[in-house]
Amino acid sequence: MPRVFSGIQPTGEPHIGNYFGAMRNYVRLGEEFGKNSIYCVVDLHAITNPASFEPALLAQRTFEMAVANFAVGLDPSRVTFFVQSHVPEHQELSWIFTTLTPVGELERMTQYKDKSEQLESVPAGLLMYPALMAADILLYKADTVPVGEDQTQHIELTREIARKFNHAFGETFPEPRAVYNKQALRIPGVDGNGKMGKSKGESSTIGILEPLDAIWQKLRVAPTDPARVRRTDPGNPDVCLIFDYHKLFSGLDTIQTVDAGCRTAGIGCIDCKKTLLAGMTEHLSPIHERAEALKADPDFVRDALAQGAKEARAVARPIMEEVREKVGFLKL
Ligand code: SF4
């Protein structure tokens, strides 16, 4: 059976782009592969970039990311879900991988270049990030990695590291393959400035746990078809982000009604947005309710994460023993 690994950044509240692009996919893979779906909130990665790392918020954001994933339907009793820093084998394997990875290859990573350009002093950890990511995946001998397309280079490097290790120490790791969820790429930001989450702040995002009245305030002022100036002007839903959201949250009948109503000026944009809000309310309300129940029972969340770390370590330990032996460390 394939073993799936995915790392989840503890970036605070996830938005609907994360939800449709990644989180729903985690739930689906979890139903298919059970405990062989391994999901990890990557707090060790979060501290590598001083521009976005806030120590006072890290624990809270890590907790909230677990709550959000459980609230959308990820069942911690069916999958393996834990926090990266709770499984120290990630760091141990990462160190071994740094000794196999040329600095030049790490410096070529596009994400490293983008992030390091914005820093006055670049921490070595930011450079080593892809070696830690390779360790995250290979520590479980995972062969399937659901990621965004911006991670292609890192997955390629992971495959390269696996090959290098196997060549140096004998066949140990599979070469994992990335699986992409294309839907993530098509979700526009609510401010109309490209992909959701790409522009700074929360102006472009709709949080999956955001209160519905706050969502409405964003939808109300969201740009629509710019050619539709007056209520009587026919519009083109194909160029409107509100219509893109309808495709995510509304039923087929509503989508068809909106499409026809927009093109014939049969409906106005505010009515169209209200219909969208109704679809969002239906979809997001049960998630909000589950999140509230989880926040009211923090012990459940902490216990689930502790159990997840235990399960992850049970898989990781024998693999690390095999690695230690092959590398030649003294066994006591
Ligand atoms: S009617 Fe709806 S789909 Fe058409 S332009 Fe207005 S908001 Fe967009």
From TrEMBL:
Record-linked InterPro entries: aa-tRNA-synth_I_CS, aa-tRNA-synth_Ic, Rossmann-like_a/b/a_fold, Trp-tRNA-ligase, Trp-tRNA-ligase_bac-type, Trp-tRNA_synthetase
Pfam families, A to Z: tRNA-synt_1b (PF00579)
Signal peptide stretch: none
EC top class, as a word: ligase
Annotated compartments: Cytoplasm
CDD domains: TrpRS_core
Short motif 'KMSKS' region, span: 195-199
MF (Gene Ontology): ligase activity
EC number: 6.1.1.2
Residues annotated for ATP binding in this entry: 9-11, 17-18, 148-150, 187, 195-199
Top-level division of the source organism's lineage: Bacteria
Amino-acid positions noted as binding L-tryptophan in the UniProt annotation, renumbered to this chain: 136
Placement of sequence motif 'HIGH' region: 10-18
Family: Belongs to the class-I aminoacyl-tRNA synthetase family.
Official protein name in the record: Tryptophan--tRNA ligase
The species this protein was found in: Deinococcus depolymerans
Lineage of the organism: Bacteria, Thermotogati, Deinococcota, Deinococci, Deinococcales
Recorded name of the encoding gene: trpS_2
